[in-house]
Amino acid sequence: QVQLAESGGGLVQAGGSLSLSCAASGSIVSIKTMGWYRQAPGKPREFVATITNGGTTNYVDSVKGRFTISRGNAKNTVYLQMNSLQPEDTGVYYCHARSFSWVDYWGEGTLVTVSS
C-alpha cells in the first residue's frame, strides 16, 4: 500500500505561481510513476503531469511551458511548480502514484484557486 499526502495549495492571482508537494509513504519501492491530476468544479478529473522513476515527464498541452513536475532525490516526493497561473487552472489537485503492478493510488487533494 502507498499513502500520498499533498500540500501547497492556496489562492493566487492570475499570472502568479504556486508550488505543490506530495509525499509518499508505505510501499515506496513499488511506485513506478508519480504525477498530478486536477478536477475543476463541475468537470471530470483530468491528467496534468507525470514523471517516471527515470525522470521522463509528460504534460497535458494546456500546462506545457508553465508547469514543471519533478521528484525528490529519495523518489518518494513529487513536486509541481506552477507558473503563469490562469483562472482555468483552478481546481482540486490530486497526487497520483502508479505501482509496477498497475495499482493506482490517490491523495486527498489540495485546492488551487486562481483569481482573475
Question: What does this molecule look like?
Answer:
The radius of gyration is 13 Å and the shape is globular. The strands form two sheets. Strands 2, 4, 5, 6, 9, 10 and 11 form a seven-stranded mixed beta sheet that branches. A four-stranded antiparallel beta sheet has the order 1-3-8-7, with no helix packed on it. 0% of the residues lie in helices and 58% in strands. The chain is an all-beta fold.
Proportion of residues in extended strands: over 45%
Task: Report the major sheet.
Answer: 7 strands, mixed
**What's the gyration radius in Å?**
13 Å
Question: How large is the count of helical segments?
Answer: 0
The helix-and-strand class reads mainly beta
Distance between the termini: 40 Å
Poorly predicted tracts of residues: none
Mean pLDDT level: 96
Give short descriptive properties of this protein.
11 strands; four-stranded antiparallel beta sheet; 116 residues; seven-stranded mixed beta sheet; 0% helix; single chain
Structural topology:
Layout: E1 2-7, E2 10-13, E3 18-26, E4 31-39, E5 46-52, E6 57-59, E7 67-71, E8 77-82, E9 91-99, E10 104-106, E11 110-115
Parallel strand pairs: 2-11
Antiparallel strand pairs: 1-3, 3-8, 4-5, 4-9, 5-6, 7-8, 9-10, 9-11
Summarize the structure.
The protein has strands at about 1-5, 10-15, 20-25, 30-40, 45-50, 55-60, 65-70, 75-80, 90-100, 105, 110-115. The protein is mainly beta.
